[in-house]
TrEMBL record:
A GO MF label: enoyl-[acyl-carrier-protein] reductase (NADPH) activity
Enzyme Commission number: 1.3.1.104
Species in which this protein is naturally found: Channa argus
Family listed: Belongs to the zinc-containing alcohol dehydrogenase family. Quinone oxidoreductase subfamily.
Source organism superkingdom: Eukaryota
Protein name (record): Enoyl-[acyl-carrier-protein] reductase, mitochondrial
Coiled-coil boundaries: none
GO CC term, one of those recorded: mitochondrion
Assigned keywords, A-Z: Fatty acid biosynthesis, Fatty acid metabolism, Lipid biosynthesis, Lipid metabolism, Mitochondrion, NADP, Oxidoreductase, Transit peptide
Length: 340
């Protein structure tokens, strides 16, 4: 996949009239909305190297264009319809599902499109709550019986999901082995990840060196591997799982397939799974209690200071082109957040 300059030119600001507020609608003022890889993937071209064919969009959700971009963010309720029961003026809300369109200043939304979050948590934590922390929470909860003292290995440890995995794991007493690509500021990055609870931070190259074997002498072999990269990185973290362990893939930043050695399946009985938080939300949309319980637990961690937002750069909506350009640069650990 190539990041093309046309990606930036695909976005523009436009003034539009809001529809009237229906009985079951809420009028919200958007407060902040991050730029996530999935937002770019929705309109980013994919070039198939075998057929030289260019496909539009690389994400499972492709909105009808023109559309309002943005899948995540936090808004404040400023008006409610006559039959709205769940919200009152002043409440903070986040989208229940992807595709809502959060890169805007105001919106009229159905009551069922959003769910409330406490308005006493930091703005950036609320704005970045619905995707990465939920992804981390579910993967740590649903793919193995993890107990205090167990360990998890993950690549893309400096990503938004990776940072949430570190903090939620630390709150649960679970050790994390965190893999990042080598870079000039590796020591600074390692220190920042350890400051939020990372047990170990190692370069990707170390997965093929004696260093990892020495590390595992002081740490139980991981029960769970979390893969946000794909390619060789996924194969390497898979190799270090204990017998019966699971690798869960939630992203593919390397744009390379996941290769699994036959021996890993036969002799170690490893499980290879995938996870997409949007599908999880849709699968559980009939029972709000499950989603509500997860958000409550995550917000409690935020209120206790055990879960913080990833490092963010706040950018005014008028400067969205600058934010998009920054979001697509390599080796970036800072999440761009549009402030309305």
């Amino acid at each position: 996949m190539n990041v093309r300059p046309e990606v930036l030119s695909s976005f523009w600001l436009e003034d539009v009239d809001l529809p009237p507020i229906g009985a079951n609608d809420v009028l919200v003022k958007m407060l902040a909305a991050p730029i996530n890889p999935s937002d770019i993937n929705m309109i980013q071209d994919y070039e198939d190297p075998l057929s030289n064919t260019v496909f539009a969009g690389t994400y499972a959700i492709l909105p009808d264009l023109p559309a309002v971009a943005g899948n995540e963010g936090v808004a404040q309720v400023v008006e409610v319809g006559s039959q709205v029961k769940s919200f009152k003026i002043g409440d903070w809300v986040i989208p229940r599902d992807a595709g809502l369109g959060t890169w805007r200043t105001e919106a009229v939304l159905a009551e069922s499109d959003v769910i409330s979050v406490p308005n006493d948590i930091p703005l950036l934590s609320a704005a970045t709550l619905g995707v990465n922390p939920c992804t981390a929470f579910r993967m740590l909860s649903d793919f193995g019986d993890l107990k205090p003292g167990d360990s998890v290995i993950q690549n893309a440890a400096n990503s938004g999901v990776g940072q949430a995995v570190i903090q939620i794991s630390a709150a649960r007493g679970i050790q994390t082995i965190n893999i990042v690509r080598d870079r000039p500021q590796f020591t600074q990055l390692s220190d920042s990840l350890k400051a939020i609870g990372a047990t170990y931070v190692i370069r990707e190259e170390a997965l093929r060196q004696p260093e990892i074997k020495e590390l595992l002498k002081n740490c139980p072999k991981p029960k769970l591997a979390l893969n946000g990269v794909g390619g060789k990185s996924a194969t390497e973290i898979l190799r270090h799982l204990q017998v019966g362990g699971s690798m869960v893939t939630y992203g593919g930043m390397a744009k390379q397939p996941v290769t699994v050695p036959v021996s890993a399946l036969i002799f170690k009985d490893l499980k290879v799974r995938g996870f997409w938080v949007t599908q999880w939300k849709r699968d559980h949309s009939h029972d709000e209690r499950i989603f509500r319980s997860m958000l409550d637990e995550l917000c409690s961690l935020i209120q206790q200071g055990k879960l913080t937002a990833p490092t963010c750069a706040e950018v005014g909506l008028q400067d969205y082109n600058k934010a998009l350009d920054s979001a697509m640069q390599p080796f970036i650990s800072t999440k761009q957040v549009l402030i309305m």
